[in-house]
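Working notes for the structural subgroup meeting. M.R. asked for a predicted model of this chain before we commit to crystallization trials. I am recording the input and output together here so anyone reviewing the notebook later can reproduce the run.

Input as submitted:
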Amino acid sequence: MHGGFVMEKPLGRVGGDPGMLVSLALLVGVGLACLYSASYGFALSLGKPAGYFAVRQLFWMAPAALVFAFGAFLPLDAARRWIGAAVVGCLILLVLPFVPGIGITKNGASRWFGFGGQMFQPSELFKPVVVLYLAHILSKKGEKLGDVVNGVLPPMIVVMAGALIVLAQNDFSTAVLVIALAVVMFWISGVPLSFFAAIGSVGLPLVALSVLTSDYRLKRVLGFIAPGYDPADLSYQVNGSLRAIRSGGFWGKGIGQGTLKLRSIPEVQSDFVFAAWVEETGFVGVLAFAAMWIVFLWRAFRVAFRSEDTFRSHLAFGMACYLGIQTLVNVMVASGAAPATGIPLPFFSSGGSSLVSVALGAGLLFNVSRSVNHG
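Returned structure, recorded in C-alpha cell form:
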C-alpha cells in the first residue's frame, strides 16, 4: 500500500466488488425478515400491527439507500477537503439532544433529538464519520505520527471530544466503541507502541471508574460476572436471551415459530434480535449468519489490503472494523459472553439511526472497492 492519487470510476461505470454487494444485500434482506419475525409479538403486545417495527425499518430503508449511494459514489479525493467540516457538524449534532424542545430523553439517556415524532441518534452517525476523519488525517500526517504532540494528539482530541459528549448522553458503550475504533486506526497507521501503553494506563482506570460510579453500569457488569446472583433484575435480558438461544437446538423451531422471544426478552427487536434469530433457525442459522458476515468482512478487508493508497486502505480497514466489531459485540452480549450494552446488530436491529450509519459505512467501503482491481 502506498500513497498516491486514485481516480474513482465515473457514475456510469459502477464497478466495485460484486461479492461485497451480494453479501450486503443478503444481510439487509435477511435482517429485515429476522426483525419482522422477532418483533411481531412485541408489536402486538403494544397494541400495534404485527409488522410495526419491520414497516418502520422499511421506511428508513429509503434514506439508508440514498446514504449508501452517497457514500458509494462520493469523489473521495475531492471530499477530503470537507472532512473537517463534517466532523464539526457531527459534534454539533451530538449536542442537540441536550437542547430543550428538540432533545429527547428516554430511560435516563439523552441520546436523541427529533421533530414531529421522528427521532435521530447522532452518535450513530459519528462512528463512520470519525473513521473517515481518522483515515484522512492519519494518512495525511504520515511520518509525523512519530511526534505524539503534533501528530497524534490533535486527532485524539477530536475523538475524545466526541466520546465525552456521547458519554454525557449516558451512552457508555458507544463512547467506548468510538475510542476502540480510534485505537484501531492509530494502530494501522503505525503510531508508536508507547502511545498505546499511555492510552491504556490512563484509559483503563477511567473506564473502571466510570463503571464503579454508575449504579446502572455496575449492575450490568455484576450481572455478567454472576448471572445467577439476581436473575430477576441484573441478568434478566441476558438470561432470557440464553434460554432462547439454547432452545433453538440444531435446526431451530422454524421462522415465526419462536415462543421465548415473546415473553422472555424485553426489547427483543433491538439489542437481542440475534437471540430470536437463533431460537427460530438454530445452529444452522448461526452458521448462515456467520457465513454472510464472514464473506462481507472478507471482501471488505480484501479491498483494504488491495487499495493503492494509504487513505483508502485505512478507510476500508476502519469501516470493516466498525461493522465487524459492532456485530461481534452484539452477538457476544446476546450469548452472555459480554456485559449487556446498547450496541445494535447492524442490518438486523430495529433503529433508523443505526441503519443510516451502517449504510454510510458500507457505502464508503463499496466506494473504495470501485478503485481496486478485483481480478
